[in-house]
Structure to design on (607 residues):
């Protein structure tokens, strides 16, 4: 597989504050690459460096095999991005904003081509409306259209579902899938929403406080046959003894003297409960936890809580 | 580059607030013209009262004094001091305004260089300056000529009066407007430089006006120490050099020499200094902007 983006030992300091520290990763062609992290984890700073909005303090960024800062214009001709939130000229129409984006990319597209792109993001019927009259979801979709106007092979979307209602989130998710599956685009998508990343990404990078905590393929992280059982028990030593004798348990993570997370095949939860009951280990609660959320919380050492929103 | 310039001009001229400047100028010019139309003779008497001790003026001279050319001169004298504010409103907004509304990211994530972007925004500011001056020319020169007609132009100076024949005036106005374009472009370049340093347009607009006001005060102050050390290097000292086109040479009999300019080298020196400032401000803006982290 061809490596499209290779970032090595990237760091960014703002005075004494180190926003990104020694981060390295690679994105392969055709992937949807998820960027996950709490607010302030360094996702946007990394993506801003990838779009040359910010200069790194150290490290290197190669895109399409070229050094980003030496071949900036050449590279950006093939990259489309929406960084943080899509901001447009509110007094201009959707069509005019899109045309402006095309001209900035050195293109002079025909009206038909621009209208097709507006139709792709579901804005063809509002092409003449001033953008200031658009909802947040429509602005997001227009942002994606402006990122796609020059038919880039790499698309960077920073928090594309921010501020959207459930339908808007579903629309953006659908758009990302279509770009990946139907057009073979490579996408880097950042989010602080675990569920979003899980639904769209092939690979994942978790950032925490400016550092890379984990990088891997989603399928390796989310083994569909496995789950995390969160148990609340009374007798830790007895439970540990049972766990050590149970061959289907993959790992145990004690979060306190009474709480632990056990990774095991989904269909073996009843077996585990049965064994603990037989050994007279009182079980106060059992919950099946989402494995990505478990991973994320483990890596960022945040107390687990309900829901998929990290922050 | 032309396509990028078209975008910038589209942004400037599609914004309703751009036309506030044009409206304000029209209001001031029309107020001056209206006042002089109804009470012009009183204004002429007031003008001549300071010189009445040393000169004798015939009634014919007085009746010809109030004409379109003189009124345009009065308007330019008044408005060219206020116009830097109108220029700063647009040039100060060029980068900082885009940063504030987040559209700077929209532009800088495209395959154009930052130097190109500054160049295009500067060019758009120059076009805006020229359009303001064209508007002023239509209102002040054409409007006054149509309302009051033309005649010889008499300009009062502290040292006496300058008189130009009516067919020796129009080119002077053309030259003065061209010089004013360079002077206001200097203000635009300063405002663009300050805009690069900020993420909100209010700062650069106020800073530009503060610099212009402080420098103008220094330029006007009669302190001998500043006359040779500070004043010659302030761009505000040279912004008013357009008046040089209306100061003429006279022959031995005291008759004005047609087409003459009293001190042409001084006008060119002022022009050179203003162009130097433009290069300096623009160069600094590009240097800083190329190294700036875009955090908005």
């Amino acid at each position: 597989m061809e490596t499209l983006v290779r970032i090595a030992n990237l760091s960014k300091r703002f005075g004494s504050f180190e926003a990104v520290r020694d981060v390295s990763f690679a994105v392969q062609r055709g992937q949807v690459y998820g960027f996950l992290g709490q607010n302030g984890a360094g996702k946007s700073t990394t993506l801003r460096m990838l779009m040359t909005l910010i200069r790194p303090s150290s490290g290197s960024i190669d895109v399409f095999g070229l050094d980003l800062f030496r071949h900036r214009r050449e590279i950006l001709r093939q990259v489309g991005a929406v960084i943080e939130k899509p901001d447009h000229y509110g007094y201009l129409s959707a069509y005019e904003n899109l045309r402006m984006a095309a001209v900035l990319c050195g293109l002079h597209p025909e009206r038909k081509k621009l209208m097709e792109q507006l139709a792709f993001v579901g804005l063809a019927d509002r092409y003449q409306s001033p953008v200031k009259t658009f909802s947040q979801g429509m602005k997001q979709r227009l942002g994606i259209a402006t990122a796609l106007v020059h038919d880039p092979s790499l698309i960077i979307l920073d928090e594309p579902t921010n501020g959207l209602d459930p339908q808007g989130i579903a629309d953006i998710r659908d758009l990302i899938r279509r770009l990946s599956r139907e057009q073979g685009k490579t996408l880097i998508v950042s989010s602080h929403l675990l569920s979003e990343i899980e639904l769209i990404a092939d690979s994942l990078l978790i950032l925490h406080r400016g550092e890379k905590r984990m990088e891997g393929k989603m399928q390796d992280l989310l083994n569909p046959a496995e789950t995390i059982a969160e148990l609340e028990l009374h007798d830790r030593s007895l439970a540990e003894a049972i766990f050590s004798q149970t061959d289907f348990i993959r790992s145990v993570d004690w979060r306190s003297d009474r709480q632990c997370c056990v990774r095991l095949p989904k269909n073996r939860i009843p077996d585990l409960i049965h064994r603990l009951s037989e050994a007279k280990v009182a079980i106060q609660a059992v919950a099946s936890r989402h494995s990505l959320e478990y991973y994320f919380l483990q890596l960022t050492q945040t107390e687990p809580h309900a829901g998929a929103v990290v922050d | 580059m032309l396509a990028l310039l078209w975008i910038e001009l589209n942004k400037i001229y599609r914004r309703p607030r751009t036309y506030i400047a044009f409206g304000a100028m029209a209001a001031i010019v029309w107020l001056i013209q209206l006042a002089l139309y109804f009470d012009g003779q009183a204004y002429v008497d007031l003008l001549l009262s300071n010189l009445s001790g040393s000169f004798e003026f015939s009634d014919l001279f007085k009746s010809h004094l109030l004409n379109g050319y003189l009124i345009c001169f009065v308007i330019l004298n008044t408005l060219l001091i206020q116009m830097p504010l109108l220029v700063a409103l647009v040039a100060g907004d060029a980068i900082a305004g885009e940063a504030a509304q987040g559209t700077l990211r929209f532009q800088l994530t495209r395959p154009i260089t930052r130097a190109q972007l500054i160049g295009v925004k500067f060019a758009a500011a120059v076009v805006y300056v020229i359009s303001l001056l064209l508007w002023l020319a239509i209102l002040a020169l054409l409007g006054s000529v149509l309302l009051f007609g033309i005649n010889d132009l008499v300009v009062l100076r502290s040292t006496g009066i300058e008189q130009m024949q009516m067919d020796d005036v129009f080119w002077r106005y053309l030259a003065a407007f061209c010089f004013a374009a360079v002077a206001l472009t200097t203000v635009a370049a300063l405002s663009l430089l300050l805009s690069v340093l900020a993420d909100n347009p209010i700062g650069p607009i106020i800073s530009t006006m503060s610099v212009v006001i402080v420098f103008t005060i220094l330029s006007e102050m009669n302190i001998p120490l500043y006359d040779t050390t500070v004043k010659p290097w302030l761009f505000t000292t040279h912004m008013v050099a357009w008046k040089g086109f209306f100061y003429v040479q006279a022959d031995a009999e005291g008759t004005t020499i047609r087409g003459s300019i009293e001190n042409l080298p001084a006008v060119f020196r002022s022009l050179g200094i203003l162009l130097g400032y433009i290069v300096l401000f623009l160069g600094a803006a590009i240097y800083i902007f190329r190294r700036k982290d875009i955090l908005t």
Observations:
- The two ends of chain B are 26 Å apart (CA to CA).
- The CA atoms of residues 183 and 279 of chain B lie 13 Å apart.
- Strands of chain B lie at 153-157, 160-164.
